[in-house]
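Re-run with default settings, no changes from the original entry. Doing this only to confirm the output is reproducible before filing.
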Amino acid sequence: MGRVQDKVVFITGAARGQGRAHAVRLATEGADIIAVDLCEDIATNGYPLATPDDLDETVRQVEKTGRRIVARRADVRDPAALKAIVAEGVAELGRLDAVVAQAGIAPLGPDRGVQAFLDAVTVDYVGVVNAVDAALPHLSDGASIVATGSIAALTPATVDNPANGPGGLGYSFAKRQVAAFVHDLATVMLSRQIRVNAVHPTNVNTGMLNSDLMYRSFRPDLDRPTREDALLSFPATTGFGIPYVEPEDVADTVLFLVSDESRYVTGLQMRVDAGGYVRKRPQLPSF
């Protein structure tokens, strides 16, 4: 028996990176998966997003564990599409025990304009609300809601990097709103014992981090920084002196929050940041 045996989990942004890691980790521990991803690029986002082939690979890896998966393409900014997919997944898999609102973008760059700000907010924050809204009618009492934030939500000093432009500010704003949303939603879910928690990673070794725009964000002193250049600055976001964590490190935390091991854990801002938050000694967030 796995730690989430026979649970059904709805995951957004599941085609690659953290979303795929969550899907595979949960499936390894006995869960069936409803997986959603856009699988196309967004114009303001300067690095390639997941593809249909990526989503197919997530399906392959989940099925390799022996578990079932319903995988569909959809935009988390489209609430009607999410609701239809969740309903379809529940009809096929029989239930819904958790939602992991993972989908996110980082449309960085000083020349990206206001639309980059709006895209970051509507994907990274509104997309979380839409995922929860689609899942909530199907969640039983005692279910789990997990939202992906970022250490950027808890360290306001990172907001004003000029190299990040409007999209960087939108990203930080969205992740701060996710933190507040989780706190307040946990309050209104108390009567149903539905746990609501956020996971706030530091740098994660995914396509978002390994992109030219992110390299420029970490090395604004260079005209054309490489990954090797950026690796010298990546450890500034942690306290352990490491450049990043792996998607599987975050997936282990998500597994705990989805499992019954966390049945009394709610309203938590769980940092998977290798000490980055305490190193910066910021003010405690207020909600």
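The beta strands are 8-12, 32-37, 69-73, 98-101, 144-148, 195-201, 269-272. Residues 165-188 form the longest helix (24 residues).
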